[in-house]
Amino acid sequence: MSAEEDLADVKRVLAGEAQAFEGIVRRWQGPLVNMAWRYCRDRGRAEEMAQEAFLRAWRGLAGWRRESSFSTWLFALAANVFRSELQRIPVVNVPLEDVAEPAGPARQHDDLVETQAQASVRRAVLALPHLYREPVVLYYFHEMDVAAAARSMGLPEGTVKARLARGRELLRKRFPHLGEMHSALPSSALEPKKEVTQ
Amino acid sequence: MKRNLNSKTDDGAIDAILASEEELIPSSGFLAATMERVREEAATPQPIPFPWLRASPGIVLVAGVLGWCGIELARVGFTKAPEISIAQVHVTANWSALAPAGWVAVALGVSLISWLLSRKLAGGSGLL
Predict the structure, then answer these.
(1) A33 vs B30: CB contact, 8 Å cut-off?
(2) Cα–Cα–Cα angle for A196, B24, A90, nearest 5°?
(3) What are chain A's domains?
(4) CA-nearest residue of chain B to A45?
(5) Would the CA dihedral through A42, A36, A195, A23 be positive or negative?
(6) Interface contact flag, A121 B35, Cβ < 8 Å
(7) HSE toward the beta carbon, residue A112, CA cutoff 13 A
(8) A105 touches chain B (CB under 8 A)
């Protein structure tokens, strides 16, 4: 993903060539849809939210001051859009206490149980209080980069770190046996299937 | 990103699970649908901004007239107030005291005309 390509496309769009925006959408559709997906865990809604983020980017393209990279600006804008969309229509979710804990080590050989365990933890992120949910979502979306998550949220790194620690603490309390279960799993089970391109 | 996947800590487990998300591929129509909306947006004419420059003479005129009215009313009020007693107000109409009312009416009329004129120049759009 090239910053030069982004800059060239932005210049063309600002010069009145609307079609040049297609290059931006083509390059960033994956990351934005994936980011939206982590916010809501609903594919249809994730695409709608990503589309809305692209539209806002289109409208506000002249507002990118080029002090930060295009991706930083786009992710911050998208995070804003996703946050307000979810405030407008919240994700239907179960309370954190109601998210089932994964089954014990005795059943860990079972692929289904393993998948369910991962799904439970991911669902639990959405059940976190609003304040801690977004830092957790963005931290893992940005491949565990606190600085990038902080830039996307427009918050100081220290604040994001503190909220992230609290969010993880809540998850740890909810899943106290995750460590044992995790150590029994084959390492291939938890390898990323594909890195999120940024 | 290399992580210690055999870590026994819950933190390590949480990290491993949340960092190992499968990538979602946008649906095939996503790009086209997004560009369709962008093209619609591009084709929509921008809202015409209120013509402040053209309306400014009218606004200045209205502000001036209203200011002048205010000053005149205050001046008349101050000079006539000692002459008016409560009894006089409801028993006899002090016509000389009401003489500036004509000027006030004229000022309000001019204000109204200038406001209407500025609205007409602005093409009927604008503040109200």
Answers:
(1) yes
(2) 105
(3) 3-88 (1.10.1740.10), 96-188 (1.10.10.10)
(4) B26
(5) positive
(6) no
(7) 0
(8) no
Phi, psi of A120 (to 5 degrees): -60, -45
CA distance A69 to chain B (A): 22
CA distance A75 to A148: 9
B1 interaction partners in chain A (CB closer than 8 Å): 143-144, 192, 195
Helical ranges in chain A per DSSP H: 3-14, 21-40, 43-59, 70-88, 111-126, 130-141, 146-153, 157-174, 178-184
The three-point CA angle A54-B41-A70 to 5° equals 30
For B37, which residue in chain A has the nearest alpha carbon? Answer: A55
Chain mean position to CA A6: 21
Q: Which two tokens stand for residue B60?
A: 């200045």
Handedness of CA A142, A144, A147, A151 (dihedral sign): positive
Beta-carbon contacts below 8 Å between A and B: 126
pLDDT, tens only, A127-158? 899 899 999 999 999 989 999 999 999 999 99
* Reported ipTM: 0.76
pLDDT digits (tens, 9 = 90+) for A11-61: 999 998 999 999 999 999 999 999 999 999 899 999 999 999 999 999 999
Structure tokens at B27: 């649906």
Looking up tokens 């309370």 gives A95
Asked if B42 reaches chain A (Cβ–Cβ under 8 Å), the answer is: yes
User: ∠ CA B11-B17-B20 to the nearest 5 degrees?
Assistant: 130
Across the interface, whether the CB atoms of B19 and A140 are under 8 A apart is answered: yes
Q: What is the pTM of this model?
A: 0.65
| A198 CB within 8 Å of a chain B CB | no
Number of continuous H segments (helices) and E segments (strands) in chain B: 6, 0
Distant-in-sequence contacts of B63-70, Cβ < 8 A, 24+ apart: B65/B107, B65/B110, B65/B111, B65/B114, B66/B107, B66/B111, B68/B107, B69/B104, B69/B107, B69/B108, B69/B111
